[in-house]
Amino acid sequence: MEEGEAHLAKTYLMIECQHLSKVYDGSGAETVALNDVSFTIKDGEYVAIMGPSGSGKSTLMHVLGALDTPTSGHYRLDGKDLSRLTDDELAETRKKKIGFVFQSFNLLPRATVLRNVELPLVYADVPQSEREKAARKALKEVGLEEDRYYHLSNQLSGGQMQRVAIARALVNNPSLIFADEPTGNLDTKTGEIVMATFERLNHQGKTIILITHEADVAHHARRIIHIRDGAIIEDKMNSKRH
Fold first, then answer.
1. Cα separation of the two ends of the chain
2. In whole angstroms, what is the distance from residue 94 CA to residue 176 CA?
3. Residue 147: is it exposed, middle or buried by C-beta count within 10 angstroms (0-12/13-18/19+)?
4. Which domains does the chain have, with CATH numbers?
5. Angle in degrees, CA 219, 82, 205, rounded to 5
6. 179 or 83: which carries more pLDDT confidence?
7. What is the per-residue pLDDT across 181-222, written as a single tens digit (0 to 9) for each?
8. How far, in Å, CA of 221 to CA of 208, rounded?
């Protein structure tokens, strides 16, 4: 067993999914988005969930990220069953445990880099002096140059904006980070820089879940879960990891 695998063997389960299903009922016709999905993810793993458009990977991310609840089955995050929580309870879980990074960055274009990164702390009523300190720490972790901190986000390159978005996901010190097609709006070279950032964060102990339809992006992860038609068709360690 390799050193990294030996470490994971000693850690606890971050995620436990048991027979998850998600069914949407619209206009009298049911759409099965998830179909009896079961798997676990250990604390500190780097996992890619891969599948084509319409495969159910986004629905699965919404359930795992406490943005939605399953129709049936159980989902435990850090040992807590989130399957039947209220919207307010799910929001509290997201605030404390989860960070999100999206393809479209979702930054405020007329706010400074620091302000964008501070926003989750504003919503959490953290004092301003503590917000700035935490934002600077997160920006340093993603390698953004300090002379960019007071630039507006719309004055940055795509790669810089994505690093700001990653810093914003980190600022609450979450134990779990979701990256949804994080290189989709970036050129290949810039995408590699962003993926290297996730690699560093994983080495620091963060659990990373990468959502993608691209094989070359998925191969940055140590483990790949393939999903199609709402069901897992393959779940294995990545032998082609970059």
1. 19
2. 10
3. exposed
4. 3-237 (3.40.50.300)
5. 40
6. 179
7. 999 999 999 999 999 999 999 999 999 999 999 999 999 999
8. 9
Report the predicted TM-score, pTM, of the whole model to 2 decimal places. Answer: 0.89
For 203, phi then psi, to 5°, come to: -65, -25
In this structure, what token pair is assigned to residue 190?
Answer: 């810039």
**Predicted confidence (pLDDT) per residue in 158-169, tens digit:** 999 999 999 999
Output the DSSP codes for 40-70: EEETT-EEEEE--TTSSHHHHHHHHTTSS--
Distance CA 206, CA 180 (A): 16
CA dist list (Å): 53 to 57, 102, 154, 229, 237:
8, 16, 29, 10, 23
Q: Under 8 Å CB-to-CB from 80, ≥6 apart: which residues?
A: 93
* Residue 75 amino acid letter: Y
Q: Please answer whether residues 98 and 174 qualify as being in contact, where contact means their C-beta atoms are separated by less than 8 angstroms.
A: yes
Residues in the chain: 242
